[in-house]
Amino acid sequence: MSCGDDRVVLFDMEFEAEFDIPAGLNTIETWYFDIPNVNTFYSSFSGGIDEAAITSIYSSTCTLDGRFGLIDYDFIRDIYINAWDPTDITSKRELFYRENIPIDDSNEIVLFGNLANVKEVLNNDLVNLEVRINFRNNPSNVENRLTLRFQAFEE
Hints:
Layout: E1 8-21, E2 30-39, H1 42-46, E3 56-66, E4 76-85, E5 88-98, E6 108-113, H2 119-122, E7 126-135, E8 142-154
Antiparallel strand pairs: 1-8, 2-7, 3-6, 3-8, 4-5, 4-7, 5-6
């Protein structure tokens, strides 16, 4: 007997979303950026797999980087990504997070995936995203791209 995982990866899912951070936001408040109706391409990634066979979808990785160029993200202290089905606000779930982001010379932030099953939110072609940020310093205008990755499993 082994201590292996009994889950089988059915498919990987990746999609992008973009949002802008305007200049002049303070470091005292928490800021929310809504990105409505983001296409997840769920139908394409699942490729006709029977819905009953897909028992779970888990967050893998998420990367925040500049949409058109390199961005110094030292001004961000904490970031969280939430999602919900556009037809059901009560389905809101945290997908990714990163707290106490270190100050370094990287031009991207890699977020950690939440450990919860998010199938109920991501088994659609559309999802609403919410990016919640606490700033370390006041930002200037920044155009951002999120690349979100997930894995679907059969158990």
